[in-house]
Amino acid sequence: MARNIDDIQRDIERTRRQLASTLDELADRSKPANVVADAKREATTKLQDPTVQKILAGVGVAVVGLIALSVARSNKKKNDIKEIQRLLSSRLER
Questions:
Q1: What predicted TM-score, i.e. pTM, was given to this entire model?
Q2: Which end of the chain is more exposed for a tag (fewer CB within 10 A), N or C?
């Protein structure tokens, strides 16, 4: 079944309008302000997930624990160095 020229032109025009609408939507989505807003909305949604909150809490506890361990080891090293210096100075005084 052959199509007449008017049908073809209508199809072409409809396709053009759809393409223009799609391009407008893509241009709107790619604006920096809209990209930032979408990212914020997505991050906020994910952060409201109880599973994500539990994971982040666990990571936070682990980081605090590692920092505390690092500080404790650093203090121990300082104390050990002071003790070695004290022992060496008392040995030299003899």
A1: 0.51
A2: N
